[in-house]
Amino acid sequence: MIVKNEEKNLPRCLDSVRELVDEIVIVDTGSTDRTKETARSYTENVSDFPWQDDFAAARNFSFSKASMQYCMWLDADDVLESEDRERFRRLKESLSPDTDMVMLRYHTAFDETGSPCFTYYRERLIRRDAGFFWQGAIHEAISPAGNVVYSEAAVSHRKTDPGDPDRNLRIFQRLLREKGTLAPREQFYYARELTAHGRDTEAVAVLEKFLDSGEGWVENEIEACRDLSACFQRLNEPEKSCSALLRSLRFGPPRAEVCCDLGAFFFDRADFSTAAYWYRQALSCTRRDTDGGFVIPDCYGYLPCLQLCVCLYRLGDLKGAEEYNRKAGEFKPNSPAYLYNKAFFESRSAADG
Fold this sequence. Notes:
Elements: E1 2-3, H1 10-17, E2 26-28, H2 35-40, E3 46-48, H3 55-64, E4 70-72, E5 78-79, H4 82-94, E6 101-110, E7 116-127, E8 148-157, H5 167-179, H6 184-196, H7 200-213, H8 218-234, H9 238-247, H10 256-267, H11 272-284, H12 302-314, H13 318-331, H14 336-352
Parallel strand pairs: 1-2, 2-3, 6-8
Antiparallel strand pairs: 4-7, 5-8, 6-7
């Protein structure tokens, strides 16, 4: 782990994994609170690393301090929930020694019930002598290679405070000053930082440059089309917003996330027939988590069913609307929207009866 001023979060993280791991390595990058003292209550392997605005450098230094066969990285606001601890324990027991890398799910956003609503796979366990190194000053990564295993175990990113909202943008701007340009993956994430700071016009230019280069990873290109569409929507350029979503179809069969975006585009314009078409397309999409892209689980069932309920109601198909609401409830039986619709249809039926 690389940490800075994580005195509050560190115990929660380490308590969730201390019985699963064989050693704990903590690298502090300049804490001014009691992070190091807290870390030493769990491990003697606590080191300092001067912060260089380079996450890969810090991550590689932390890996150099490890001695076990595999290295698992975590951030201080990550936890393994009880079910995932058991999955991880079974993984350790069954893992073949010729495995180079293990990909675990990473849950980074959650709905009102605590269920993950945004997830993707990350390289999580790395064989120490496989010759891998982290790359990228920001959003550092190791490209999957060698004998790669996918596991259902997940790490949950449970943020407790926003941290420094400008840090990533500062690093990207420094890279631009020093290098004059950014690599395709850096362009993709730089654009996302710009949108997070309300700088959509600048983000559009970066996203279009990224997409025009044709050098990006396909899952990032698909996501870039979605980001570009959202930028144009906020900039009140609806036709360009729609075109950006359709551009994603160049990269293969549509993802359910894109279909839901297109459904929302036409729904907002009261074109309920076309919206319903795209929501039905979303229901026909196969969820492909191991492709490595960002996944919004609700787009593969709950959300399109709920929206089809509304679309069909607006189109006068009350029976079809009620049926799709029932299907939405199969995915999320405690959803307030589903329960509201259910009560509406029941009251309507009682009035008609």
